[in-house]
Amino acid sequence: MKKIVLVGTGMVGMSFAYASLNQNLCDEFVLIDINKERAIGEAMDLNHGLAFSNSSMKIYSGEYTHCSNADIVVICAGAPQKSGEKRPELLKKNTEVFKSIVAPVCESGFKGIFLVATNPVDVMTRVTAKISGFPKSRVFGTGTTLDSARLRYLLGDYFGINPRSVHAYVMGEHGDTEFVPWSQALLSTKLVDDVLQDNPNTFKKRDIERIEAEVRNSAYKIIDAKGATYYGIGMAIVQICRAILQNENSVLTVSCCLNGCYNQEKIYAGTPAIINQSGVKSLIELSLTDTEMKKLQESCDALEDYFKSIKM
């Protein structure tokens, strides 16, 4: 029996719930929200669609006591990011929200995995780890999973190949200081840098830099256009949860404790990691160039400053 509890039934949470239903992600799905009537209504709405899906999922609104035997608690609760608002500005508001969530989840006897999607996700994941006291392997965030998917999509479109054949990652903060370690980016088995060098009249370095900037600024563009982002991240959460529930040992760029990698100890940031039923099985430490290491350090420094600003 695979069980997920979702805390926060806003647009991100319900995009995740809807995608979970359509992909028959688990056996039991519980919705928790500070607005209990909303959680009840959302559960009813999803249940009414069961007849049109291949799922037999049990969906209901619940309380924190329902977390006791859950495999995963997904946290999507928090203040939404407003147009023009930087992620660090959300920190103080969402830290208070998390204090009211994580403690009762732990008090229920929960022994599973915390998956955080609330922004700024790297810092909120560290906040969750701090409040819960859980092992580092069992607390992680969505990190740059969606950013990496955006990157592969745009590179696939530019080079004219299936994004599944693009092997490239976005690392660091899910936000303004994130970066692409191009020294590790591959089209199939060939380095992107080599493709550029071999095809100077077709593919340009400036186009690659534009793509990186587009990935970094995608969320802001979507927020300006429609007020929020939720479909992409909802589907990313499904992918991460499936990796856990099916013990896939998949490599995903989640936000997890770097734990000594890249000379970082307590920082939570987006990095390739192996995800399975135990959570973060291990990190894959890439051989970054000096320039890339500097970018990662700058990103980690920013995340450390954000965390210190909430004075936990």
Detail the topology: elements first, then pairings.
Elements: E1 3-7, H1 11-22, E2 28-32, H2 36-47, E3 58-61, E4 72-75, H3 91-107, E5 113-116, H4 121-132, E6 139-141, H5 145-159, E7 166-167, E8 186-187, E9 190-191, H6 192-198, H7 205-226, H8 231-245, E10 250-257, E11 268-276, E12 279-283, H9 290-309
Parallel strand pairs: 1-2, 1-4, 2-3, 4-5, 5-6
Antiparallel strand pairs: 7-8, 8-9, 10-11, 11-12
Helix pairs in contact: 1-8, 3-4, 4-9, 5-7
Description:
The strands form 3 sheets. Strands 3-2-1-4-5-6 form a 6-stranded parallel sheet, sandwiched between helices. It has a 3-stranded antiparallel sheet with strand order 7-8-9. It has a 3-stranded antiparallel sheet with strand order 10-11-12. The mean pLDDT is 94. The chain contains 9 helices and 12 strands. The protein starts with a strand and ends with a helix. Strand 2, helix 2 (36-47) and strand 3 form a beta-alpha-beta unit. The protein has 312 residues and is α/β, with parallel strands linked by helices. Helices cover 42% and strands 17% of the residues. Helix 3 runs parallel beside helix 4 (121-132).
